[in-house]
Amino acid sequence: xxxxxxxxxxxxxxxxxxxxxxxxxxxxxxxxxxxxxxxxxxxxxxxxxxxxxxxxxxxxxxxxxxxxxxxxxxxxxxxxxxxxxxxxxxxxxxxxxxxxxxxxxxxxxxxxxxxxxxxxxxxxxxxxxxxxxxxxxxxxxxxxxxxxxxxxxxxxxxxxxxxxxxxxxxxxxxxxxxxxxxxxxxxxxxxxxxxxxxxxxxxxxxxxxxxxxxxxxxxxxxxxxxxxxxxxxxxxxxxxxxxxxxxxxxxxxxxxxxxxxxxxxxxxxxxxxxxxxxxxxxxxxxxxxxxxxxxxxxxxxxxxxxxxxxxxxxxxx
Length: 317
What we know:
By secondary structure, the protein is of the alpha/beta class.
């Protein structure tokens, strides 16, 4: 695929329309720089980082790659103004905003020459993001890992609906981890894809080895969306997930669910490798992931599969 003919490649100045999602506890500078160096767009997931940690990550990422990279910025982050200062100070070229109102920071970031992409899970919020002036949208389907949309709209349905509603470039996310999945999403109207779960199991991912191995061992049906009363999240089944299901059967209210969840469970599971009590956020595509690979090899494999699938598709007709 030619860089010059793809709207996302042009917008973000990248070789391939393949973006690594900015995931808490999993995507630091090592993963982001590896993906960017391989021709995609790497993203540092800042939602789990103190301000001084993000600064250190950005400095290291700039040292490790001369290609564009981005920072994912959850709008609910308590010290968001400090993260914004770091992004501007070090001239990070792209910010992916999520979990909040895109109007809040888009103009400020634009004023400093930074492109803004906003993550949504519905047509309604895609239109609001476009109205807020963002440069592109990530539409994320129900299959995705981590915090998810309440509407449970699958990627296959969401992408064409959002495509029909907006004029700006569209990135598909949720359930994409192969070149064939990438082609399918682009056939539905996406200009590019964002991949999370597949990169969690990369060598450069900061996820704990226990978590990576648990993902590789997982099969279809091993993840579930839960905690819709708080913030919907897709998890691999483990003892913590079983505790939640028991609480639901006992009629637990929001307060009780919040008490069970507590604080720091995602860190415990994904970063510290506690497979019993930790929150193990991953997408449905986990059932297709069968090995841990270097991030650059994942990019290469996906692009090779994409072009093979494209050739096969032409032969169908």
